[in-house]
Specification:
Layout (H helix, E strand, L loop, with lengths): L1 E4 L2 E4 L25 E2 L5 H15 L15 E2 L6 H19 L1 H7 L5 H16 L1
Antiparallel strand pairs: 1-2, 3-4
Helix pairs in contact: 2-4
Amino acid sequence: MQRRLRGWLLRGPRVVVAGPKDASTPSIVYAWNVGPVANPSLQEAERQRLILMAKEQIRGRVGPVRQVRYRDQVVSPLALESKYRKLLQRAQCAIAAIVTSSVYMRDLQSTVEELVLRHHEWDIAVALHL
């Protein structure tokens, strides 16, 4: 299930759980289950180009690997350790839940703009990347 909402690509469940579901078995969040995060200060066309480029690099690879190019413009989930990918995924799911909620659509769009949420997502991704 995919749905596009003002530049956000929203997907269904992204967490892949390996092994039995108990507290001793950690869930695994692969790089391709978390979206790349582009700097919201860039123009939309440049952001989309960087996101597509990062998605192409993620296919079939396992991280973490060192991100050398475009570090100040995009954070690839491939460059994050597994525990940090989980945190980024949680932030992305929370933002997706906010912007797709009926309350946000009716009342909150003018209160909390999508650009503010994108800046928070970028701040989280950069902090996890360091």
